[in-house]
Structures are given as C-alpha cells and as structure tokens.
Design brief:
Structural class of chain A: mainly alpha
Number of helices of chain A: 13
Strand content of chain B: under 5%
CATH class of the domain at 69-254 in chain B: Mainly Alpha
Number of strands of chain B: 0
CATH superfamily of the largest domain in chain A: MetI-like
Order of helices and strands of chain B: HHHHHHHHHHH
Largest interface: A-B, 84 and 85 residues
CATH topology of the domain at 69-254 in chain B: MetI-like fold
Helix content of chain B: over 70%
Number of helices of chain B: 11
Oligomer: heterodimer
Order of helices and strands of chain A: HEEHHHHHHHHHHHH
Chain lengths: ~290, ~280
C-alpha cells in the first residue's frame, strides 16, 4: 500500500517537474535558439533566382571586401569601448561617494536620484539632448548669450554628441552594480590600509578596486552590450553621418530587403559582442553566471 | 576618502562639486524636455515665447495638443496593451523558472541556467531580427505546405509581444529567483504537515511571500516593455507602439507635442515608481 503510494507520489512529482521544465524549454528553443540558428542559415545563402537559394559565403565576403561595412563595424566597436571606459571613469567617483562617503537618508536619496532618469524612456532622454545640442538649442543659445559665439553653433550630428548620449544612457547600468559592490566593502578595511601607511592611491588600487571588480565587470559588460546594440542614440544624435552598425542591419533588413546580408551582419555583431564579453570575463577571471546575477 | 579618514578641505570641496555636476548632467535633459512642453512656439527651441497649455490641450493644427492627437493616443493604447500581455506572460513563465532553478536538481541544470541568461547578452536589434527571420521562415513553410497564411507570424503586434517577452522573462526570473532563495522551505513543509497539498501550500504560503518580487518584476517588465525600442523596431507592423510613433515624428521634426508626451511618460513612470516603493516597503521582513 505504502509502496504504491510512494510510486504515485513519484509520478506526480515527475509530472510536476516536467510541467515546470516544458515552458522554459519552449521559450528558449522557439524564441532564442531556433531563431538564431535560422539566422545563421539565412546568412549562409545567396539568392540565385526568385525564391531559389544556394549555399554561399558571399554575404560574409561582401562584409570584408566592402570598406564601408568593415569601417562601420570597427568604428562601432571602438566607440562602444570608449563609451564604456568613459562611463566607468565618470560613474566610479559618484558611486564611491554614494556608497562610502554618504550615510543614512542623503545616501538613499542620492541613489534614488541616480535611478530616476532611467525610469523615463531612452527616447525622451535622447530628445532632451537634441533640444540641448541643436543649432537653435539651449547650449548654443547660452554660448551666444555669454558672448562665446557670435552665431548659432550646431552641436548635434557629430561623434561627441553620440558619445554624450551613449554615456548618459548607460550611466544607470554602471552606477547600480558599482554602488552595490562598494557598499559591501567594510570601511575598516580601508582604514586598515591607511593605518598600515598606504596612500590614497595605494588603498584605492589594492583594496577598493579589487573588491569592486565584480561590479566593475558586470557594469562594463552590460554597458558595452547596450552601447554596441544601441540604435536610437546614434541615429538621433549622429544623424546621417553616425555610421553605427545596427543601422546597417536595419538598412539591410527593412530598407533594402536584403535579409541574407542583414542576417550576416547580425551574426557578426553577435560574435563581436560575445567575444568581448568572454574576453572581459577571462581577463578578470569572473564567471558569467555570477556577473549576470 | 571616507568620513573616518581625514582629507583636505580642497579635496572634499572638489569631490562634492564633481558629484553635484554629475547630477546636473543627469537631470538637465529631462528638465529641458519638460520645460519646452510649455513654450508658446511651434518648435521645441529657443527663444522662450511665454507659457502655454496648447501642447496638451490645443484643438487643431498646427497647434494640435496631446489630448486631441488621436495618432499619439492610439499608439499609447497599443503600447499599454502590448506591455500588459508581455508582463503577465513573462511573470508566469518567470515564476515557473524560479521554482525550477531553486527547487529542482536535474542534469544539465547549469547549462539551462546559462541558456536562460543568454537573452541578456543578445543585443535587442539582433533578438528582433532573429525572431523576424525565424517567424517568416515558419510562415513561408506553412504557406508552401498547406497554402495557409499565418498572419500572426508576419511583422505586427504578436511578434512585438513575443520579442519583448523573450528577454523580459530572463529579467523577471532573476528577480523572482532571488526572492525565492530567501524563502524558508520549512514553512511550506509545515503547511503540508497541517494537511495542505503541495499546490495549496505554494498558493497560500510561498506565493504571498513572493508577492513583492512579483510586483517589482511586474513593474520593471511593464516599463521595459512600454519603453522598448530596439526589438520592437524590427518586428513592428502597421500598428505603431508609442516609442516607434515618437521616433518617426522626431526624425521628421515635430512640434512640442512630443515634449507633452514625454512629460506624460515621466509622470506615469514616477507614479509607478512611487507605487512600487509603497507596496514593497511594508512587506520587507
């Protein structure tokens, strides 16, 4: 009797387990894995005639032989790395201030103030920068008013504008992990560093930064990914000359309807971003699961 | 460097001014957007011509205000619909995932966990494009095999919802798992000792415990869906959600009605943020 009961419980348990397993498997296979496999397949074909396709690497060779594609790709990668580093440099002192200098209510208030702009859509934030930077915008107006310029200055549609927008958009994803890891650093460790005769720089380099490394890494990875895959900010702040790789993908898919080429670009961008994430993890010896959670 | 370590006055003052500058940098764009929604001019730019409510209440061209701009209002409706469906679906799946990863042991668990994290490292544009490619492959196959056209698999709101669902689920799973990890499983066992079945125990003991996380994840998912641009851009059909509609107008150069929409979004997000703070605070153990 009890054995039968146990068996029944076990089948019930197994059933429960598979009921939990099925949705996640469906989700990952139908929306993540199969679409990416299909995209690889599409990128490896070539239109021979109408509705006739053959296997070919031509979409990838086109990427390497056409300087425009290649340059856009490298430019996007380099600008993303620069944006990530600048975001880190700007965010670190602020995060340190929030986590270590402030205490009590002001600390919570400033932290929430940091998060606030990111409750608003990226579109609105970028729009704000457009109003500030454009020829008839506020900064141009202020420069003229102070007599620093004698005619309207166009500050949109250049790389600096793109960079400002990218850094602004990414800030949250750097500040939050930095504040969290810095917060977990015991103040007495910093004090001990000074007591043992370390200078501020020494303490920073051998106590604070090593402790904050997981936060720095996850911040950098997320910011880099978001920047590389950003479409809105480069398009709106950089205008026609922005040359961002996601724009190439959009053009191939939507404007030119050349899905094969677009799929190849997508795969290349995916490889680049995974490669840099992997390198970042390798260099700092962090595990992917830890950084992401 | 920290309060217990003495530092020079110069250092403290310059550090404080740096942090102040940072917050000016953070806030300025939003203040500017809000301010120009009240400027009495056809374009959101200087000079300042005085205060007006036209960009909210204006009744006709060229001063069509937000509350009479049917195209914009429709797109807000579309965004809300998509966001509600996406949030519900991703919360449901994320709760299942949390139980799977926190309670079950099975071979390949770590591998599945890494796979589950993948949507976070796939750029939104590529996620959108891959779903676009795959869905039209499936739709074409159906058309050739059965001569039947599946409208839902062509660019449109169904695909937009699926695309957003694909990555929001990961985020919701992380939030809910973190909360479930803190749950003391003996409480559930106690409920079962008192005669509850496993499902009743979960429904009456565990799920109420998860409520703050479910709510938090729900707010985040709703906002991220509402504001999503990259994935949506690739999958959108003829019904444009708000972000796409705004983007199109921004490129054409629009009247300050866009500023008015932005203010509406800011107020909406602020309300959501307040509500989520309010709901989550008393529930903290």
């Amino acid at each position: 009797m009890s054995k039968a009961n146990g068996n029944f419980n076990r089948t019930q348990y197994r059933l429960g387990f598979f009921l939990l397993l099925a949705p996640i498997v469906l989700w990952l296979s139908l929306l993540i894995i199969l679409p990416h496999i299909d995209m690889v397949l599409v990128s490896l074909r070539e239109r021979i005639a109408s509705r006739q396709y053959g296997f070919s690497f031509s979409n990838y060779t086109a990427f390497f032989t056409e300087p425009l594609y290649w340059n856009t790709f490298v430019r996007t990668a380099v600008m993303s790395i620069v944006a990530t580093v600048l975001t880190l440099l700007i965010a670190f002192p602020v995060s340190f201030y929030i986590a270590k200098v402030l205490t009590g209510r002001p600390r919570i208030a400033l932290f929430i103030l940091c998060l606030l702009p990111f409750w608003v859509s990226e579109l609105v934030r970028t729009y704000g920068w457009m109003i500030l930077l454009r020829e008839t915008g506020l900064i141009s107006g202020a420069l003229q008013w102070f007599g620093l310029a004698d005619q309207p200055v166009e500050m949109l549609y250049n790389d600096v504008a793109i960079m400002v927008g990218l850094i602004y958009t990414s800030m949250l994803f750097m500040v939050v992990p930095l504040v969290t890891t810095l917060d977990s650093l015991d103040n007495s460790l910093i004090e001990a560093g000074y007591d043992l005769g370390g200078s501020s720089w020494n303490v920073m380099r051998s106590i604070v930064i090593p402790h904050a490394m997981p936060g720095i890494m996850s911040g950098c990875i997320v910011v880099f990914m978001l920047t590389l895959g950003n479409y809105l900010t480069p398009t709106l702040l950089g205008g026609k000359s922005s040359l961002w790789f996601t724009e190439q993908i959009y053009t191939q898919f939507i404007t030119r309807f050349n899905w094969e080429q677009g799929a190849a670009f997508g795969i290349l961008l995916l490889i680049l971003s995974s490669l840099i994430v992997w390198l970042g993890l390798k260099i700092t010896r962090q595990s992917f699961t830890r950084v992401m959670s | 460097m920290i309060p217990s370590i003495p530092s020079s006055r110069f250092f403290r003052v310059s550090y404080l001014s740096y942090v102040t500058l940072f917050f000016v940098f953070l806030i300025t764009p939003l203040v500017v957007v809000a301010a120009f929604s009240f400027n009495d001019a056809l374009f959101p730019s200087l000079p300042w011509n005085g205060f007006t409510w036209d960009w909210y209440l204006g009744k006709g061209e060229p001063r069509l205000g937000l509350f009479h701009d049917d195209a914009l209002l429709d797109s807000i409706g579309v965004s809300v619909q998509v966001a509600i469906v996406t949030t519900m679906a991703s919360l449901a799946l994320a709760t299942c995932n949390a139980f799977l990863f926190e309670r079950e042991q099975f071979p390949g668990k770590n591998f599945l966990y890494v796979l589950m994290l993948m949507p976070l490292v796939i750029p939104g544009v590529i996620l959108g494009v891959s779903i676009l490619v795959f869905s039209s492959t499936v739709a074409n196959w159906f058309e050739v095999q059965f001569g039947y056209e599946i409208e839902a698999l062509r660019p449109g709101l169904v695909l937009v919802t699926l695309g957003q669902f694909a990555f929001l689920t990961t985020i919701a799973t992380l939030v809910i798992s973190a909360r479930l990890r803190k749950f003391d499983i003996t409480q559930e066992e106690a409920a079962m000792n008192l005669g509850a079945s496993r499902l009743t125990a979960i429904a009456t003991v565990t799920l109420p415990f998860l409520k703050p996380a479910l709510f938090g994840a729900g707010v985040v998912a709703f906002l991220m869906s509402f504001e999503n641009f990259n994935t949506t851009l690739m999958l959108v059909g003829s019904d444009a959600p708000l972000t796409i509609a705004m983007f199109d107008r921004l490129r054409e150069g629009s009247t300050p009605v866009l500023n008015a929409v932005s203010v509406l979004l800011m107020v909406g997000s602020a309300c959501l943020a307040l509500v989520s703070l309010f709901v989550q605070r008393p529930a903290k153990p």
